[in-house]
DNA sequence: ATCCCCCTCGAAAGCGTTTTCGAAATCAGA
DNA sequence: TCTGATTTCGAAAACGCTTTCGAGGGGGAT
């Protein structure tokens, strides 16, 4: 059906060996023969089969992008998309094809990690959206396929990660609020199955400590990164301490939910309660009030993950990449 | 390196043929031999190479997901992600692997369509986010690889599509506004390189006509689906006709931009100007005011696209799928 | 004229599967 | 016990490519 290297060889009156050499830029071939072959191949609109090539070279030139919980409308929703873009862009730029595989722990549709890698001969894998208790994780850590984790600070023989300095990010948020004069600052954290939650909690604590503010149990609530949970949490926090004047949310989406509920409760933002979000979603700039947030370089996560991967595939054992957070001021924390 | 079918054969003391047969459920094999082979394969954690299999079977069991303008933060931003999820879910459910390829017309990084298909032996392709003037389109239409288009109403020999009834959707929006008593209704449309824009324009016109309202040139503005353009357009429209009391936006994002700008101009929504969006983004429910919108079954787009694909791969020539829009009321059009 | 080396190219093996074709073994019926 | 059908299995080719190894030819040096 499809046109093969043999056809080109026949057409050019040479052997397949010669065609292969011409196409792959080997030196031991007469320049004019090469030109002729190239021309014929182009005219015939010939493109070598990546499959056949993979088989013989034992390299697929493909990397996997595995996302847990993609089907969950959930947590990283807005975050994930940009990371996907980054991974895609860099993979393409480097000549790798991307195989997307979104798994879903709940529905048991998980294909064992190893199997996927073996089946498609993946040269490396970018893994994201994984909970701390996800079964994938164990498999990955002792598999031999290079793996770059996004927002999961674990390393192993063939495994490293890229993430934000979440501790620093959370601290930035708290510092910003302290500068604005707040002393009673709540935290609406994400669920504990997310690695980032622990770090943001830590950063929150450090931020308070540096300001000489003792941490209080009732200032911390746990949501699930979703809008609704942000609303519920802020209500709970206010019930526990009506004097609360500020809250730091571990996701912009929860921040939006919180602001929404605050309005319903008759509280003004930022006059009565100031709010800081996390993620740096574009839409936060266009809300009323616009939301102060810790911005993550999401696209770059993807790019760097692929970069880590190719370095690992080259035999290196690169250090994890920890990107710096930035605070973007909005109206939700006043001027 | 990796364990192959030969290893299993040797282990079991049979030929590779027999192993292949056992694994693939052929009947001509003694039940107990099959069991033994299966056991051995499982113990060895063996998984057949999809690559080798593809080569000999000339079927890759892989479909491509090609997205133009993914790198554009742009237009379908929020829409695309859900469609991707749908494609992924259904592809997995049906046992196909997904190869993601986001191209970018601007940066010329486009890999010719045909080449991609040939290289990876794709059995079918889902194509989305393509402009009317995109070079891909021509290639696709006369290629022989089955192709399912999303939101691009074109058919060809091996090509069909899934989309929303955009005419009906726009009409729903206008009807809703008319019911609320509006007579001067503007349209903030998307750019004309999007297929959907033409249809939404048509639906807008029909909606007005049915209400006996003559369409006026200056009621129509063209944005690019982005927030900023929504803001600019509403300002222009109001400049052209200060009496405007309602506007229908061809994307939720533009609607948000428009509402934002309206507030800045001292107009109340919906009291002074009512706004309807398009897409049915979740976040529209959580804004103040929440946005009335035409909801698209985005996830289902992906699912149906894959369904179309497999039917085409089976030799059928299925009819296009046109899904029905639904209006979801928010506060932006009053009660 | 001889020898050696370099340049250019082809034959063939091999990658891990599936599948065709036929052979061996088993079984039924007589 | 023999025949023929049926069941169970193996040898080998094929898929499209890369790569090793070596052959042939031309040119320069001796």
Automatic annotation (TrEMBL), chains A, B:
Gene3D superfamilies: 3.40.50.2300, lambda repressor-like DNA-binding domains. The keyword Transcription applies. Residues 3-57 form the HTH lacI-type domain. It comes from Marinithermofilum abyssi. Transmembrane segments: none annotated. GO terms for molecular function: DNA-binding transcription factor activity; transcription cis-regulatory region binding. InterPro entries: HTH_LacI, LacI/GalR-like_sensor, Lambda_DNA-bd_dom_sf, Peripla_BP_I. This is LacI family transcriptional regulator. SUPFAM superfamilies: lambda repressor-like DNA-binding domains (SSF47413), Periplasmic binding protein-like I (SSF53822). The keyword Cell membrane does not apply. Keywords: DNA-binding, Transcription, Transcription regulation. Pfam families: LacI, Peripla_BP_3.
